[in-house]
């Protein structure tokens, strides 16, 4: 099956990455990434080269790329999935906080819908994982090995170092072109040879650096895996499967191998470093299995995709494993809800809890609680949904998905004033969540407050990087019949700020042409 390009690659030839990353794109794969100088115990290499791109510039560049990725239809803006990946990544980083470097970036982990096995890191600590890779990981240690490897790229600041090397290598083809122009007077063949020779030397240096970057990321990743308590053999198992796939499919090698050059030497190096380590059995979390079931549906949400997923879940039930049964029941409950059968979904969710619980105390799980709230809302029982959301908010206070479901439940129960009060507090605390602004706009609309509704929508568009759309919403807010003097002052101030940002982006785009 031919894989379609990821959102990152699809836009990499256009304005997504901008001129700075376009320069990198020619010499560094999408997976070889970004920022953060390693501090304390992790080695920090290439300090002179990395000065070409400061940590602040890296973060700004990463945020610019992420604004475009978030607008892509294959970006998986799914709260349970996002929370799992970020909690999982936070566990790895907690084991080696020095991987954050002196800039102390807040890492952000996200998923994109793509049938190829791949993962990539972007400038500033943004790490993406393909949906197919999550499904291909046979246990959490294998998934951790991929994510730790990408953290290794960030910790070693490979993009900053690539820019430093590119500055040096750019002199090689430039000098070759000058020599070629001189040689063309006497021999066109000699001119071509000189030109190709210079380009080949530069490309070889860049490829060598890429392979070195992969080995560095492997070593840092292994340290993170070990300190976080995961089985380090998971990295070897994953790479061995990828290498086998390469031999089987030759030109159709998995994308992860095309963007992460895998050699026998790399595997041998990892094996040598783990040879003296004792095997560490680590049980996978229930969340890992639930999220894989969820990703199976997110990867292909078509009717045929749901049909195929249902067959896979039915086959999974035959394994007679407690966690596998719970994950399969959860997947079937999701399918039932998507197909408009909330009663069946609720029955399957009860079976999920029963399978997951076994002889243990009652299961406390945010992923399952989230589905329970969605089911109650679909059943038209807003009071029950609100009660469940209130309880879940107490049990899982850091869950952003549960927080948003609480607001949705308030509105479904007709408590729009309470929803507005709650959401206004939330947008002050979490200023980078456009979903909160969307919900606030919905709550204002339910109150009949048009000016405030469009102001909230303007903030949502601005957070997503759609400045022209944000300015349009401000214009609509200004013309709203209920816009107060204070609202008009807020609109004017925000419009000036967004217009200034938009002009800066236009100027920057013209410079990069």
Could you characterize the architecture of this molecule?
Helices cover 69% and strands 3% of the residues. It has 513 residues and is mainly alpha-helical. It has a 3-stranded mixed sheet. Helix 10 (188-227) runs parallel beside helix 13 (264-274). The longest helix is centred in the middle third of the chain and has 40 residues, at 188-227.
- Arrangement of strands in the largest sheet: 1-3-2
Mass-distribution shape: globular
| SSE run | HHHHHEEEHHHHHHHHHHHHHHHHHHHH
Which class do the helix and strand fractions yield? Answer: mainly alpha
Report the mean per-residue pLDDT as an integer: 79
* Counted beta strands: 3
Q: N-to-C terminal Cα separation, in Å?
A: 36 Å
The fraction of residues assigned to DSSP E strands is under 5%
Number of helices: 25
Largest sheet: 3 strands, mixed
List low-confidence stretches. 1-50, 168-188, 199-209, 249-258
Helix content percent band: 55-70%
Q: Assembly state here?
A: single chain
